[in-house]
Amino acid sequence: MTTSVQRQFHRNGQLREAVPLRGGRRHGVVRTWHRNGVLASEERYREGLLHGVCRQWDAGGKLLGEFEMNRGTGVQREWHDNGRLEMEVSTVRGVFCGRTRIWLRDGTLLSERFYLRGQDVTADEYRRAAKLDATLPHFRGRVGRPLPEGSARRQRIHRVFVRRLLGKPNRREAAQWLRKKADDQTRRFLGRFKREADAAEFVEALYQAGAAEVIVADIYHDQRGNQFADALVVRLPKSSPQRRAVRAVGDKLRKQKLGAVEPETDIDERRLYLSLA
């Protein structure tokens, strides 16, 4: 039977993921790494199904949590970098079965769904089925109340995400970051822009349109000292025409297949997130 290991890398050359395969299915320990080289997660697989103890660490090497699976059966978990639960998924032999929940980084319940052998059902439907079938996972506690759909939900998701980015220490004002000293031989790589000059021109266009501030978020390095970033956070003006103008500049990313703008439409957000990955 053919065995192989699939590997993917971060833009700074650091190994991002190593996936052992046997016969085309995951078999062995799948590992991921943070961009600074610190181990991020270990998931054990047997013939395509999670089997064994799985762990997750933050970028500083602190253990965030662990869970144990038995041939695809159990409750899988993921954690935010602040230690709060991000996701909880119940499966039986690799198939969704039981309760699945997702939380924002601030602890807000974003989603709670129930599955019966892969089919989406209501909580009451699942409870009735579980009473008749002892092999089905039982969930504890009350049914949650996820954040309802609407503009308030979109605003909260966006606000929590941007707050996390701006809370990281490795950020700089974009124009200053791109404006290097004469003796600085390292390079700046902003998303998919091929040249530093192109990135600087884009940042200047945001300011000319009315942006109050443009921040390069979550900067990382390679071994040579070159710096990389895959996101911009733009503080928007209050003026409606200027807000539209800034969004128009950002929308060029999508048209040129260089990135995306979040949120896609104006929800009265204070800051715009430009994904350049």
Descriptive notes:
It is a single chain. The chain is α+β, with helices and mostly antiparallel strands and 277 residues long. The protein folds into two domains: 3-132, Outer Surface Protein A, domain 3 (Alpha-Beta Complex); 151-275, no CATH class. It is 22% helix and 39% strand. The protein contains five helices and 21 strands. It has helices at residues 123-132, 151-166, 174-178, 196-209, 240-255; strands at 3-9, 15-22, 25-26, 28-33, 39-46, 49-50, 52-57, 63-69, 74-79, 85-92, 95-103, 109-116, 119-121, 172-173, 188-190, 213-216, 220-221, 227-229, 231-235, 260-262, 271-275. Strands 1, 2, 3, 4, 5, 6, 7 and 8 form an eight-stranded antiparallel sheet that branches. A hairpin with a 2-residue loop joins strand 10 (85-92) and strand 11. The longest helix has 16 residues, at 151-166. The mean pLDDT is 95.
The biggest sheet amounts to:
8 strands, antiparallel
Average pLDDT rating: 95
Strand content: 35-45%
Order of helices and strands: EEEEEEEEEEEEEHHEHEHEEEEHEE
Q: Descriptors for this entry?
A:
277 residues, 5 helices, Outer Surface Protein A, domain 3, alpha+beta, 2 domains, single chain
Quick recap:
The chain has 277 residues and is of the alpha+beta class. The chain has helices at residues 123-132, 151-166, 174-178, 196-209, 240-255, and strands spanning 3-9, 15-22, 25-26, 28-33, 39-46, 49-50, 52-57, 63-69, 74-79, 85-92, 95-103, 109-116, 119-121, 172-173, 188-190, 213-216, 220-221, 227-229, 231-235, 260-262, 271-275.
Secondary-structure topology with pairs:
Layout: E1 3-9, E2 15-22, E3 25-26, E4 28-33, E5 39-46, E6 49-50, E7 52-57, E8 63-69, E9 74-79, E10 85-92, E11 95-103, E12 109-116, E13 119-121, H1 123-132, H2 151-166, E14 172-173, H3 174-178, E15 188-190, H4 196-209, E16 213-216, E17 220-221, E18 227-229, E19 231-235, H5 240-255, E20 260-262, E21 271-275
Parallel strand pairs: 15-18
Antiparallel strand pairs: 1-2, 2-3, 2-4, 4-5, 5-6, 5-7, 7-8, 9-10, 10-11, 11-12, 12-13, 14-16, 16-19, 17-18, 19-21, 20-21
